[in-house]
Amino acid sequence: MKKIAFLAIAMSALLGLSACGKQLTTSKTTYKATGMVAVIKGEASGKTVKYQAPTGNGTSKVNSGSYVVTVPMSNQKQTVKLSSDGQKKTVTVKAAKSIGDYKTISAKYNQAIVAMALPKSVQTQLAAAQKAGTSAVASMTPAQKVAYAKQQQALQAAMVKAQQATKDSQLPTSTDGLKQVLSTNGGKLRLNVQNGQLIAITDVVSVKAMKNKKAKTAFGTQFGLLANATGADAKKVGKAFTKAIKDAGSGSTTIDTITSNGVKFNIGLSTTDLYIYITK
Questions:
Q1: Domain for residue 12, yes or no?
Q2: Residue 59 CB-half CA count within 13 A
Q3: In which residue ranges of the chain is pLDDT below 50?
Q4: I need a labelling partner for 89 at 20 to 30 A (CA). Which of 114, 193, 222, 246 fits?
Q5: Angle of helix 234-249 relative to helix 213-229, nearest 10 degrees?
Q6: What residue numbers bound the domain in which 129 lies?
Q7: Which H or E run includes 177?
Q8: How many domains does the chain have?
């Protein structure tokens, strides 16, 4: 009996020592947005850290005892569950502000893309038709109405043609989660859409492309249309962006956040790419 009791105590001590060697920590208990995601950091004794969140699940490797988990932001508060080597931890990710309804923003952006692809003569006709309104049609003579109907058919055909020509440059009508949705001469667009709300945009363009006049123009157009679609003042943002890049080229070590109508634009630079993070 004494031997059995001794063995039980020894086993208990060994298990206790084993448990002491295991750990899973987090640098905070509550996290907020860092661009498009929340960055959760900590230390773990296991080889990997598993995480579960409303916006996505996954596994992150542990390097030299440390790990980093990135969770896509949402317009709703999230509870994130972490586990590693038998240890568990729970943290909270604060809700992010929505830029706006995704379908509304994408429709506005796509309409602008299509309109820019139309011949200038067609753009002028469309502007004139919108200015005249439906009341002008009622006062037309029969002959004028026939001519007007033919003009509308021609405009519709031009719109269809422009739609097809710009298909690869338009935002998807619907999307969900964090993913890249466009890759054009103007750069790559990554979106985070949760619950039908646009949470964040990352506009990425290579530094090399910015030295090419055609690519630089394409980037400026895409960036301007994005700013406008999200409710910002595209001209104001464009001027501030140009100044920020010029200052960075002159050796400035910091780039201030550009804000317009509540929409925030943060700029990041690497040796190869330029990043613009759009949030609210």
A1: no
A2: 6
A3: 1, 6-7, 9-11, 13-18
A4: 193
A5: 130
A6: 106-168
A7: strand 177-184
A8: 3
